[in-house]
What does this fold into?
Amino acid sequence: MRPACVLDYREAARRRLPRVLFDYIDGGAYAEETLAANVADVQALKLRQRVLKDVSKLSLETEIFGQTLSMPVVLSPVGLAGMNARRGEVQAARAAKAAGVPFTLSTVGVCGIDEVAKGAGTPPWFQLYMMRDRGFMAEVLAMAEAAGCPVLMFTVDLAVPGTRYRDQRNGMIATTSAQRVSQVIDGLAHPGWLWDVQVNGGPHTLGTVAGAAKDLKRLADYWAWIGRNFDPSITWDDLAWVRARWKGPIVIKGVLDVADAHLAADLGADGIVVSNHGGRQLDGASSSIRALPPIAQAVGDRTTVLMDGGVRSGLDVLKALASGAKACLLGRAWAWSLGAAGEAGVAHMLQILRAELRVAMALTGCTDVRSAGADLLAG
Ligand SMILES: Cc1cc2nc3c(=O)[nH]c(=O)nc-3n(C[C@H](O)[C@H](O)[C@H](O)COP(=O)(O)O)c2cc1C
It folds into this structure.
């Protein structure tokens, strides 16, 4: 059965991927309340149906950071995506390029910046996690600049990693020998994935930071490495450090509070992503869609406000725009599609999303995404 929507891709990914990987994508922190709220609060928003407006011509294009997007969608950084499909980041970046939307490469992608830039024929946006070794960070930024990455997305909501129960249960964080055995059995039970990724998809390193992240033999080694290397002491002062080493636009990802949005705008951030990391960090934090309107109102005239979290359809994209975002990012939507069907899956998911967005625009009487506002929402 061909997937008809993003959630069909979620089910297809559940079938194709070993449980440890599916749960890594699908899960959130602690009781997953914020993850659930991200989705539920988007669902709770209602679009305002309008009729008898001429909707024969719809414009989905928008411009952010000097780039024209064919629709107001960006693929969010997703760590380890190359474990979902063979050289997964390259496949997703290709699909994004064909669809005319940006792909953001995570610091902890399996494929490195150069591999993605060459493989996709266009440099990705690059997402930065700050590590303790500033010398190495400077090298990474220089690498991103040399590859021509047009936008730097600086993720600031992972000072420490949130605890994810599913990952603990599955042995993603630290693996007991019993969990190791069940991971091997589970891998063997998913031969399509095993052949594509495990046998043919190597090297399974963290391409961009491979120089610093050596000896990562198992998934659990990856978390231990993050714990040792990510820098929990970073503050707003470090933005100046990043700014001094990056000439292009900088987007701060992980802002959920108006006060932080003001700080980001005051410090000259070109954009912010209203985000709670897809409910994977502070459980109990507000949903992104709920946090978005006051932030957009406070700083939307000074910086480009983006959002992510819980966007599962083109209708959801329109709700995000109506709530104040200029564009929204997709995390799980592309990770599931990639895990289910590689590049073709991501390409098809983006087609679905575009078609849904067109219908949502037509039936709300919105002919241009750039003018989408709160009037599209039912009171
Ligand atoms: C499997 C997975 C890995 C992620 N890895 C990263 C990462 O490396 N860097 C980052 O800034 N955000 C990361 N995120 C968060 C996403 O960029 C995004 O904020 C989140 O997924 C949005 O919510 P959604 O999945 O509901 O769309 C990750 C999310 C998932 C699901």
Observations:
- The pocket of flavin mononucleotide is lined by residues 24-25, 38, 76-79, 106, 108, 127, 155, 253, 275, 277-278, 280, 308-311, 330-333, 335 (CB under 6 Å).
- The chain is about 45% helix and 10% strand.
